[in-house]
């Protein structure tokens, strides 16, 4: 048991019992704000949950009111699924979500600025019998000779060797290419993730790539010549090793993102209306025919199907890369945009009865929860749905 867990356990129980000092409350909120404590926090909430009566609220009214008041005291930013137009103080409500709702348990839910208490039994009643499990580390590696390796079931260690380049799978489920120093010509490999899959790899130049679900990356076993070029479909986050003499290029259809060394995210799914490139660090150049844009950190290039390019300033990059840290994070997102992400991650089909609801939501929840827990959060904000046989139907 880690020292952090012991401390979190102590602070959580003092806060829950109403005996925490102001300093202890502040320390608890700071720890909860760190995503590194999600597993420990979930365990503590499970213990509190199991001690409740089925008909009782998750926290009694006086305790709930005090906890919520303390959490709201310094809120600034939205982090719980709710209609996006609600003008509420938000950042600390994310801590409330962590304490009371992140792992799918009931809490105070905001819809049209009205507060309601959700009990343990009421959650059980709406939890569907059919469900979909979250995705995980799943991918297929295709070698130059056509051989395929299912990475999630492959043993750790050396998987293959192509020329002088060794391909290893590490204990944490990461694919690592170790380029040799001889003159062998590079060959092309492809790693692809299915629906419900993601994977991380280190390219021969040391660049790190995190591949989202239903995506692919095609790359050489070693980089030669004047540029380092890879091709993607879907979505990937890159941390590119610096090499001023060999720019790094990411291609998707007829669009090229060129960098020297930087951190950025590219979202280029075919079923999305726009391709988005978001820059966290360094500088990138976006090119598509006659359209060109150069990004600075915090900017995003948005390219539509017609080839029109626009650059957005002061983008919340955390929203764009939350997926790689195991988080669904939405800001003023339509239900159709949310459900496209859900379909890829849970490997489900999505259908709509009638017209797609024209509402926007802002929210944040772990990608490790079941599909029903994500949908329950949307349900508390007024979305009607059902889950049957790997299919989520949004109802009128």
UniProtKB/TrEMBL annotation:
This is FecR protein. It comes from Mucilaginibacter gossypiicola. Residues 190-285 form the FecR protein domain. Residues 328-394 form the Protein FecR C-terminal domain. Pfam families: FecR, FecR_C. GO terms for molecular function: sigma factor antagonist activity.
